[in-house]
User: Fold Glucose-6-phosphate 1-dehydrogenase from Falsigemmobacter intermedius.
Amino acid sequence: MVSRVIPVDAFDLVVFGATGDLACRKILPGLYRRYLGGQVTERCRIIGAARGPMTRAEWQAMIAQALSEHVAKDKLKADKVAGFLERLEFVAVDARGGQGWADLAAMMREGVVRAFYFSVAPDLFGPLAERLRAHNVADSGSRIVVEKPFGHDLATARELNATLAQHFDETQIYRIDHYLGKETVQNLMAVRFANILFEPLWNAQYVDHVQITVAETVGVAGRGAYYDRAGAMRDMIQNHMMQLLCLIAMEPPYHFDPDAVRDEKLKVIRALDPVRPEDVVRGQYEAGEGLSYSDEAGNPDSRTESFMAMKVHISNWRWKGTPFYLRTGKRLKARVSEIAVFFKQPPHTIFDDASGWQENLLVIRLQPDEGMNLKVMIKEPGPGGMRLVRVPLDMSFAEALGAEGSDMPDAYERLIMDVIRGNQTLFMRGDEVEAAWSWADPVIAAHEGRRPLAYAQGSSGPLASDRLMARDGRVWRELH
Assistant:
């Protein structure tokens, strides 16, 4: 199988926050890999913008170091690195003042796509948007890329949407969620809508329940101050996991078109039932092999959750009565992101001994080892009667696609190229963000100020999350 590299138009991409962690760890290494893939051509430029004074040569040296740390060694060809660094320019810009904007405007070229990546703190989104217009840096076809967090609640999200809308049309605003750039997430749409096999079964009649898990082994060290203001609900569930839920539950769009896809996701969010307090479990990791959450966050009396599990219902014809269980946490026993669709038991068994029966299960793995796994029942080999056993029909992208499967583009690579193409399918729309906050805010308010349950590092979270499932006669999938 040979992947196709689809060229993009020549562009000027300005990265605000060019010396920050995200730019050095993800954005620039991703653009380098697209340069290797032939999409970042000689006519493309990447302009770093940051407040601190720095020469072009100094920024090039910083990015060269970042590439050596975050790009596979076999991709670091000296001539290719040199060619990529030649694409880089730098300008010192004050996001809240007037310094550097005339210089940046003078660097913009006519006839190429202009894109501006806001890899900065959210309180700078508005000032940057305002100055891009005031200094004629952006034109009518320009695009801005906005990183999360997109608001802290519904009120701030609305305020931010309104601020950006003063300077840019909705078609120019790309709210990025890197989860939507993952190969497996996009394959979820292909599996559902390009195959007749699953879609007839994709409803409450045949699906018993769905589990969405995003588990991490790391803590909050290094970002404790931010995380303590956000918590698992704001940092993970309201955005990343909400997007996964939407893709699992949405109706088929009339076409694979940006607004058609986002219209169907919005319908899912608006159909979410309010979450009962007893259907939510919040946890916070204790000291163990590492520091406790409160120590890493620098807040001894922190009431912020590092773990959250909840049961969610969608009130529409397709999903009424089918629960969706969401679970995310830090310092857990394994790093895994997956969606597990549990199908119901056949209405009647013809076998005398069905004790070995287990539900059919479709597991979509987002990380690590992206792929899909369908578990079905077969006869256990050997004599002695009809004994049932569940076996996996496994598809690891790395194995199924060979070398190309293990060299898939990073989520940021794919999403940045979509920005250049002007394709908003995998980006959140303003009304979608506000609808997600409308649902999340009451959940947050119901538990504000309550102390989360303690859980051990390296565990699966608080025991109460297991009881949440046991109450319904179900169990979480093992973290491994």
